[in-house]
Amino acid sequence: VLENQDLQDSIKPQKVEFHSLNFNTTLHWQPGWAREARDARYFVQYKVYGQSTWQNKDECWGISSHVCDLTQETSDIQEPYYSRVRAALAGVYSNWSLSCRFTPWRETMIGPPVVTVVHSNKSIMVKLQAPRSPYKRKRGSKIPMTNYYDLLYQVFIINNLLDEQHRVLVYEGKDKVIKIQDLRPGVSYCIVAKMYVPMLDHSSAYSSRQCTVL
């Protein structure tokens, strides 16, 4: 019995955490500390905070992976959720390991916008597209993150002549197309952008650089 107890403890999943980007939400965990734990199988359950019964996640029942996609299970984005994972090895089941509480609307990370740059001789036209959620409209298109939050675009310009690391904020607002004027011909400029959520004081990462020479 003691050996079973030891095995139970040593295969118990560690660090059960939600990771979420634009409401694409996965549960991650690490295997137990026993060397044999790498051969364990995992079982995932989830529930809305306050519910008494746990739901099995069928696609993550008896899996060898350390990650489980719960995007559809957490689609009511204002609700707080919990998840839990247990491991099994050689007919022995560990206890459940519980995640922290996770509320998608508060905790999902918002990704950067997609940036397209068109230049003329003294100006740059910047087109911005907000990231999209995994949830779909009836017609099938993915719902943009701007439907869920009051989001602002922040656009920065980098003058490569001066300093590649120095980003200057040139625009903050909701326009999807902006024009940056009075730039110097023959100079290489790069544009990066972020999404900003004033209500939560969150920023996305920077978009990839879009560079052009006027």
From TrEMBL:
Residues 12-107 form the Fibronectin type-III domain. The lineage of its organism: Eukaryota, Metazoa, Chordata, Craniata, Vertebrata. It is found in: Secreted. Gene3D superfamilies: Immunoglobulins (2.60.40.10). GO terms for cellular component: extracellular region; plasma membrane. Belongs to the type II cytokine receptor family. Receptor for IL22. Binds to IL22, prevents interaction with the functional IL-22R complex and blocks the activity of IL22 (in vitro). May play an important role as an IL22 antagonist in the regulation of inflammatory responses. The gene is Il22ra2. It comes from the Eukaryota. InterPro entries: FN3_dom, FN3_sf, Ig-like_fold, Interferon/interleukin_rcp_dom, Type-II_Cytokine-TF_Rcpt. Transmembrane segments: none annotated. This is Interleukin-22 receptor subunit alpha-2. It holds the Pfam family Interfer-bind. Its main location: secreted. GO terms for molecular function: cytokine receptor activity. Keywords: Disulfide bond, Receptor, Repeat, Secreted, Signal.
